[in-house]
Specification:
This protein is of the alpha/beta class. It is 36% helix and 19% strand. The chain has a single domain, classed as Vaccinia Virus protein VP39 (Rossmann fold), CATH 3.40.50. It has helices at 4-8, 21-34, 46-50, 66-74, 87-100, 112-118, 151-157, 172-183, 206-213, and strands at 35-36, 56-60, 79-83, 105-108, 125-131, 159-169, 188-190, 219-225. An eight-stranded mixed sheet has the order 1-4-3-2-5-6-8-7.
Length: 226
């Protein structure tokens, strides 16, 4: 799995999107405050990055970051590391962090798989959020799913004992697939024995709002590191 991020397979679609002037300005002015550079040869010192020893929760693919800053704002005693490749979303989150005075978020603008493989120590995180990842619905593309054999073991290994992995999707096939993969991943235990009830502390994401308007159900999984 460590070989060129599973032979260079990407788990996301790099969407083209124009950055607004505000997003560009935020990226230029605020990256040095909230951003962390990718370095494949160095482990990330989370204590130094946040300036404290608080527990850290990682979020893979935060989109435009609305749920990210809302969760961080509600939990100032927890640090949040956001991983995203979509530049407009990074710019938007940076702007929101500054305007709301949120200090417990840091961002890595890079492929999360490569970050987890090369920069993150085992047991580093108290939690991992995966909200509405690219579902790759076609069978020939299933190898690109973030939750898949091999990669699931890496994600689990970066959780501390007692840490949790929280997965949400609006695609039933991906939900069933992920339930199967995570149930067979060593070191993880399903907190609810099947699909989880909606966690009320999680804000509604943009994708969730779209799914609700389209009449699609939301599927949630909560696994604990044992």
């Amino acid at each position: 799995m460590s070989e060129e991020s599973d032979r260079g397979i990407r788990t996301y679609v790099l969407r083209a999107g124009r950055m607004t002037d505000a997003q560009k300005r935020a990226l230029d002015e605020l990256w040095s405050r909230y951003g962390l550079e990718f370095d494949s040869k160095a482990k990330l010192d989370l204590g130094a990055a946040f300036g404290n020893a608080n527990p850290v929760v990682a979020e893979i693919g935060f989109g435009m970051g609305r749920a990210t800053w809302q969760i961080a704002e509600a939990n100032p005693g927890i640090n949040y590391l956001g991983l995203e490749v979509h530049t407009p979303g990074v710019g938007r989150l940076l702007s929101d962090l500054k305007s709301r005075g949120i200090a417990n978020v840091r961002i890595v603008r890079h492929d999360a798989v490569e970050v987890f493989e090369s920069m993150i120590e085992p047991g580093a995180f108290s939690g991992l959020h995966v909200f509405y990842p690219d579902p790759w619905p076609k069978k020939r593309h299933h190898k690109r799913r973030l939750i898949r054999e091999g990669l699931a073991e890496i994600l689990a290994s970066r959780l501390a004992r007692g840490g949790y992995l929280y997965f949400v999707t609006d695609i039933e096939d991906y939900a069933l697939w992920s339930l199967d993969v995570l149930s067979r991943t060593a070191g993880l235990r399903n907190r609810f024995g099947g699909f989880a009830p909606r966690q009320e502390w999680r804000p509604e994401t943009k994708f969730e709002a779209h799914a609700s308007r389209d009449g699609r159900a939301c599927w949630e999984l909560m696994f604990d590191r044992i």
